Amino acid sequence: xxKIGIIGGSGVYxxxxxxxxxxxxxxxxxxxxxxxxxxxxxxxxxxxPRHGKNHEFPPHEVPYRANIWALKxxxxxxxxxxxxxxxxxxxxxxxxxxxxxQFIDFTKKRDYTFYNGPRVAHVSxxxxxxxxxxxxxxxxxxxxxxxxxxxxxxxxxxxxxFSTRAESMMFRNYAHIxxxxxVPEVNLARELGMCYVNIAAITDYDVWAEKPxxxxxxxxxxxxxxxxxxxxxxxxxxxxxxxxxxxxxxVLKNAFV
Length: 257
Fold this sequence. Notes:
Blueprint: E1 4-8, E2 17-22, E3 35-40, E4 43-49, H1 64-73, E5 78-87, E6 97-99, E7 102-106, H2 131-143, E8 148-149, E9 153-157, H3 165-172, E10 177-179, H4 185-191, E11 195-205, H5 215-236
Parallel strand pairs: 1-4, 1-5, 5-11, 6-8, 7-9, 9-10
Antiparallel strand pairs: 2-3, 3-4, 5-10, 6-11
Helix pairs in contact: 2-5
């Protein structure tokens, strides 16, 4: 079974051709959709559409625990999380890609852990993303002349509403991009000793900016971003080594109380 999993949207199709779909039953209910198994440039990959096949799950209702558990159950060790985000900084432009290195959690009512007792784990999140995969996808983007930022802090809000202007101005002081789906996906992957990298595609400026954006412009940027993501996956996925030397699995060693 594949050791690499992708969680994202429809933009993955075109570079990933599923050959089968597996229904996985988890202690946390059903995943967003059956896990699709296929290949990217000869590399076995498992894919889950985060919001469901018909985009039926809003950000605050995505079955995050079921999604991560299902991938782990199938033998996945590394997860590529693809997200669409807004920009909180002038220099982080629509159409740019961000290889996120930090996040701030501003969500409110999600299921954040697999360890609700009687076993308790306090997992370190000081450096939440896999350094090995971050390096691979940053260098691949540079090689492909895709506009990319090596670092960026992602503030994750509850949704499904967007920020007020006051909230957006506050977030600008601490983060570079804003979205609704990174948390608790990254937390849960880390709790199971899985590698996680976030490839964030900027669609527009958040409401701090006096830059009115209409739906057609956002759709145009999203289409262009999907093409960039496909190129990144096509070249980057085969570069991921089978053996993990990143230390992501070791975070569990001293986590249990």
